[in-house]
What does this fold into?
Amino acid sequence: MKRTTRIEWPTLALAVAIYGGWMAVTAAHALLPVPLLMLAGGWFLGWHGSLQHETIHGHPTRYRPVNDLIGGVPLSLWLPYGVYRRTHVAHHRSPEPTHPRHDPESRYVAGDGWSARIARARSTLVGQMIVGPVASIALFLADEAARAWRQPAAFAREWGPHLIGVALVLAWLRVVDLPILTYLVCFVLPGQAASLLRGYAEHRADAPGPSRAATVVSRGPLALLFLNNNLHAAHHADPGAPWYRLPAVEAQRHGRGEPRYRGYRDVIRRFAFHAHDAVRHPRG
It folds into this structure.
């Protein structure tokens, strides 16, 4: 990953806002009605996922240990930063993006088993929002449990630091008297739903270009939540560009032929009850 040569203050300020906001919302949880707590909790967990994506790409400093320290706090509880980093780097280096055998972040399947049935249930945006958060976490944890048996040393290297971070997050939740079940329902699952909304239309197996990436043109709150990663084709074209420069990258490469959506309203209108595409990859 390309790294910055200086401190990127917008990203550093963003990290302060995310962690400060998360601490404030968890501390004030008893004062907030459940719908508002889910909205705020989902926002900060989704925002934190976007921040982790930035730190994996070498922001906001040129020092990886500093970036990992900034992004590595496991607010989601279930996703080790080391696993996310390894699989996301592999996604960018994949010789065939979107293919489930070559791209660890592919939403496609290669066969017709139970994984294909789950993928079909998640093929519409409504299905993704309802089934996706629990299914994606459960599938990930099942895969990691199998990996623990096959690769115990590698598993321990990634999960050891993660569990230490989880213990610190749980300690804070105990300090603010926030029950773990409430945290899961009002923070973790809505945050994962936000990430799945961003990722729903960002790649297509039949899209032109080497990255098979799409563009969702949005400059509203969701663009801030996703740190402009909705401009996904631009991100793949220049993966070292920080989030606040991606609109300029997109402006320079407008009209390259990738799928384009006029904001998330367009994505919802087209795919709320219609599958984005076939869940089985066209190349088997």
